[in-house]
Amino acid sequence: MRAAVHTAAHEPLRIEQLDDPTPQAGEVAIDVRSCGACHSDLHVIKGELPFPTPAVLGHEVAGVVSELGPGVSGLSVGDPVVTSFIMPCGQCGQCSRGNEEICERFFRFNRAQGKLYDDDTRLHRPGGEPVWMYSQGGMAERCVTPVTSVYRVPDGVELSDVASVGCSTMTAYGALRHAANVQVGDTVAVVAAGGVGSALIQLAAVFGASMIIAVDISDDKLTAARELGATHVVNSSEVDAPAVIRELTGGRGVDVAFEALGAVPTFNVARDSVVEGGQVVVVGIAAKGTTGEFDLATIARRKLQIKGSYGAKPRRDMPVLLDLVARGHLRPQDAISRRYPFEKVQDAFDALNRGEVLGRAVVDLG
């Protein structure tokens, strides 16, 4: 099969021929049809997140089941599916407590070493050299992943529309539902209107937020944010964004501010934009070593809550999200602004790095 291989920091992805991966017990092989280009992948490409090389990135996968490993039930060859970027083992202490989004084995084996849970990769160059997997390694014509991260796409839903559900949408849902527990009538700010930010805006509307304020430095992204459901937009390169947010909310600030980029300036805007007792939810993945500042006295006096959110709980939440898509309440396809053929996969990440992608860019493989 063809795969886009990451060989070193700052080097372009290289399309290579790899051996077809074979699923082991409890795993599923998928013929990939499309894969989203996520900022987390870009962090790896730029060397901002440590990860072994050579590796295949890509963790927003839509495709068709091509092979089932031993012991897999509930799916059939030919089923249209999407994957969650979090691949819960279902057995560790965190999974047992219902915290699948911080599965211990996922972080120990996959995020740290690029392996699945038998301590091995499924990807190899001809001749046997191992190639490591970032989640399932979806920037390839075929990928293998645990069945716990595979979900059938409902009838009537276009497979090409839903690749991003497995990461940006699921990440947004986890932040809204589990970290912040947004209620009908709450006011929210979404700071950085990229891929995850776009999903936060869409889902905040589904959750019934009364005011959804999008903050970014790009007028094009803010225009897109309005189309996705933002009630107000603020260009933080032109105005004091926290001051404008307080003005829009009658001087009080928002109930919840989501930081969706993973950068100090966006964290500062989110931190300074919430009401007393409000929540600052950090969703964006920052480069390792990035630090934000806050005044401990202010946190205590204003009873601020600063939370981290890594994603949703796949086995509980992915069916909910796909049902919202099937019923037309959630349209992830509206956030897709660019599609690239597989041969242009590097162009997708270059555009993402330049800040040119509105919402999500998707790489089509078949």
Question: Can you give a write-up of this model?
Answer:
It holds the Pfam family ADH_zinc_N. One of its GO terms (molecular function) is oxidoreductase activity. This protein is an alpha/beta fold. The chain has helices spanning 39-45, 93-96, 104-113, 168-179, 195-206, 219-228, 241-248, 264-271, 296-302, 314-326, 345-353, and strands at 2-6, 14-17, 27-37, 55-56, 61-68, 80-83, 123-124, 130-133, 142-146, 150-152, 187-191, 211-216, 232-235, 254-259, 274-282, 305-308, 336-341, 360-364. Strands 3, 5, 6, 9, 10, 17 and 18 form a 7-stranded mixed beta sheet that branches. Strands 13-12-11-14-15-16 form a 6-stranded parallel beta sheet, with helices on both faces. A hairpin with a 7-residue loop joins strand 1 and strand 2.
In terms of topology, how is this protein built?
Elements (H helix, E strand, L loop, with lengths): L1 E5 L7 E4 L9 E11 L1 H7 L9 E2 L4 E8 L11 E4 L9 H4 L7 H10 L9 E2 L5 E4 L8 E5 L3 E3 L15 H12 L7 E5 L3 H12 L4 E6 L2 H10 L3 E4 L5 H8 L5 E6 L4 H8 L2 E9 L13 H7 L2 E4 L5 H13 L9 E6 L3 H9 L6 E5 L2
Parallel strand pairs: 4-8, 11-12, 11-14, 12-13, 14-15, 15-16, 17-18
Antiparallel strand pairs: 1-2, 1-4, 3-5, 3-9, 3-18, 5-6, 6-10, 7-8
Helix pairs in contact: 4-5, 4-10
